[in-house]
Structure formats: structure tokens, C-alpha cells
Amino acid sequence: MKRYLIWLGVVYILLLLFPLPLLGKSKPDKDIGNSSHSRQVTSTTQKSNKIDDTFRLLNTKTGKVIELTARNFLIGAVGAELYPTFHTEAIKAQAVASYTYYNVLRNRQRTNPDKSLNGADFADKQADLPIYYNNEQLKERWGANYDTYYKKISDAVNDVLGILITYDNEPITAVYHAISSGTTEDAAVIWGTSYPYLQPVATPGDKISPKYQSITTFTPDELSTKLRAIKDIEFTGSADTWLGNDIQTSTSGTVTYLTICKTPFTGREIREALGLRSACFTVKLQSGNFEFTVLGYGHNVGMSQYGADYLARQGMAYDDILKYYYTDVEIK
Fold it and tell me: Rounded to an integer, what distance in angstroms lies between the CA atom of residue 207 and that of residue 204?
């Protein structure tokens, strides 16, 4: 009996000494990943990465280089590219396409610098059109709607900041345009190089967009003057004999070949010489003038901005919109 009491006493002492440490160990282990300190560290790391993600723009007017965070650049770039009245999912799609496109330009420039950019990643204009608006320019552009539009675009940018469109794990050349002809174009038709992710896709929403079709006319003198500026061409005979009957187009409607006074042209050359909205056109002599009926607006390759807005209004999310226009890509 005495031995039994001694044994109980030893067990009691051991229970007093050891359970508290044993019980106390499980709680910290369980909560480490969910602690407020852990969340704060993660948040700070992400914020730091975003701050380090910057773009350098050459101001073509002053020659100075400005550095912008990716977020601020994208807000200004998206504001310059499309109407803030577009559906939010279309705005997100544009933000990701813009980020991917300029990310490729930035990487290319920083790998093989063009000295004319003075250390910038790219200029603030392409083809004399601004690619970015600062806050003051956005205020001038949007007027009384500035606060509403800025919040809508900045919220969309925040939701997709840092996301890229990739093919074979590499960022793509994510080109885009305002309005397609109804079917987007193979990059090879426009630029001579084919890309697996820049293939034709039907985009019916464009056909109901504003200014899908435009008509531009030129007098014979106007036409001859503009075309002589780009090619050595001799205009002879009356204007009704100038157009050849050999116009050729791609399946998407881009003019790939036509002759004027037996001189060959591509639709792209005609578009640039005459300032047409796209290279998808037909032409005829009407009442003594050359009448061009043009479909779409832009080079017709990649994502159509109006088409993206249409798809978004049908309920499509931004990533699905991007996968629709860019063939076999990943969004990450």
C-alpha cells in the first residue's frame, strides 16, 4: 500500500510538470501561417515587387526620361487607349494586353539599348499617337468625369496588375486595335511574320460598333499626289482607267494586292498613303472621285478593343477575352 501511494505521488508530480509545455506547443505551430505578422510580411513583399516594377518613358517633346510604377503607367496607358465607358472586364483585358506588350518592349530595350531613347524603355508616342496620359492630361480628356473614370480604370488595373499573357512560358507581342473588319488578321499578312498566337478569329461584335464602316473620297489630283509621295508612278489616261481589276484580299478582308496605273500596291501602303482607317477596303470611281469604303479601324491584328467590350457585355471575363483573341495562350 505504501509503495502504491508513493507511485501515485510520482505520477501526480510528473503530470504537473509536463502537460503545460506539451499543450502549449500545438497552438503556435497551428497559427504560424495565419498570424497577422505573417500576412504583413507577405503584403510588404508583394508591394515591394510592384514598386520595383517600373517603366521609363522618353518624353518626345522635352527629351527627358520619366520613370513610372507599372500601376501608374498602366492607368495612363489604358486611359489613352480606350473609352472608360467600356465594360470593366474589357478594361482589365486591355490592361493585361498593354502590360504584356510594353513588358516585351522594355525587356528588349534593356537587353539591347537603343541610344536614341536616352535610357528610356520606349517613347511616349508611337506613330505620332500618345501611348500614355498623365493625370493632368486625363483630367483634360475626361473633364467632369475624371474622378469616376479614374477610379474605374485604376480599380481594374489594381485587379490585374502584374499579370502577363504568355505562349510557351514567354510574354507575347500582345498587339491590339480599335475595331476589326469582323475577323481579325494573321500577323503575317500585315507584317510578314506569322505568330501562332496572332491568328484570325471571328469578332462579330465589331460590326455593330460605332464607325465600323467609313467612306473616304479623293479627287484624281488628290489621289495621284498622295501616291506619288510613296512610289514612282505615272498617271496617264483618264481616271476611269487607273484602277486595275486585280484586287486581292486575305480571308479577313485585308487588301493584299491591287494595281493603280499598272503599279502594284499593298493595302497597307494605300492605307498609310491615304490615311485610311484600315487596309480592309474596296474602291471605286464614283462621280469622278475615288471612293474608298473601309471596314474597321487599325491594323486588325490581335485583340479588338470594341470586340472585347462586346464580349464582356455578353458575360465573358477578361482572361477568357484574352484567350479568345490570342490563340493558345496562358494568362498568369
Answer: 6
What number is the average pLDDT over the span 139-155? 98
Lookup: cell for 14: 510528473
**Torsion of the alpha carbons at 72, 78, 79 and 80, rounded to the nearest 10:** 110
User: 54-58 and 122-123: which strand pairing?
Assistant: parallel
Determine the pLDDT at residue 202: 97
Look up cell 494573321; give the residue: 186
Which of 200-217 are b and which e, b meaning 16 or more Cβ less than 10 Å from the residue's Cβ?
A: bbebebbbebeebebeee
Whether 48 contacts 40, CB under 8 Å: no
Q: What is the pLDDT of residue 49?
A: 43
- The answer to whether the CB of 331 falls within 8 A of the CB of 202 is no
Q: 306, 241, 230, 226: which is closest to 274 by C-alpha?
A: 226
**Average pLDDT over the chain, rounded to an integer:** 87
**What is the spatial distance between Cα 142 and Cα 144, in angstroms, rounded to a whole number?**
6
Contacts of 5-9 with CB under 8 Å at 24 or more apart are: none
Give me the pLDDT at residue 216, please.
98
pLDDT, tens only, 104-120: 999 999 999 999 999 99
CB distance 159 to 151 below 8 Å: no
pLDDT of residue 128: 86
pLDDT at 127 (0 to 100):
84
